[in-house]
Amino acid sequence: LFRSGPSVSIVSRNLALEVSNLNASSFNGSSFSVGQPTNSSDLQIDVKSSQSQSLASVVLPSSLLTDLNPEEFDAVSRAQFTFFKKTGLFQDAQINGSDQEFISYVVACSIGNISIRDLQEQVKITIRHLEPQDRKS
């Protein structure tokens, strides 16, 4: 699936990508969630609200761009969200052969090409485990 307009989405069985235009002066927060509908092999993106059974979600607060300097503020034009269902791209050669492995999917978010620090509100990231995990007390 490919959508275009103020945003571009690419969705497949193992990857979901959303690139959205941002107007820094009217930024009111943003969200991205990825789910997999029943009886479907393709992923589904929702940018309006979090899906109830999402595999991963990112919620950006409305205050995210508040403390940017003028140069950074002018540079912000897009938000990119990426979700990887397969974790093979992220294997670490130092842990191969050990008993360590990924226990969750991988999600990323990029705002323009800037680093944002010292946020007034938290960015909320939720990622479902690949397999149920035992809770240890």
Write the layout of secondary structure elements.
Layout: E1 2-3, E2 7-11, E3 15-21, E4 30-35, E5 44-46, E6 56-60, H1 70-75, E7 78-84, E8 106-111, E9 124-127
Tell me about this structure.
With about 140 residues, the chain is mainly β. It has one helix and nine strands. It has one helix spanning about 70-75; strands spanning about 1-5, 5-10, 15-20, 30-35, 45, 55-60, 80-85, 105-110, 125. Strands 1-2-3-7-8 form a five-stranded antiparallel β-sheet, with no helix packed on it. It has a four-stranded antiparallel β-sheet with strand order 5-4-6-9, with no helix packed on it. A hairpin with a 3-residue loop joins strand 2 and strand 3 (about 15-20). The longest helix is centred in the middle third of the chain and has 6 residues, at about 70-75. The radius of gyration is 17 Å and the shape is globular. The model has no long low-confidence stretch (mean pLDDT about 80).
- Write down the overall geometry: globular
The CA-CA distance between the termini, in Å, is 43 Å
- Beta-strand percentage range: 25-35%
Helicity level: under 10%
* Low-pLDDT ranges: none
The rounded Rg comes to: 17 Å
- Given helix and strand content, the structural type is mainly beta
Overall average residue pLDDT = 82
Number of strands: 9
Order of helices and strands: EEEEEEHEEE
Biggest sheet character:
5 strands, antiparallel
The total count of helices amounts to: 1
Order of adjacent strands in the largest pleated sheet: 1-2-3-7-8
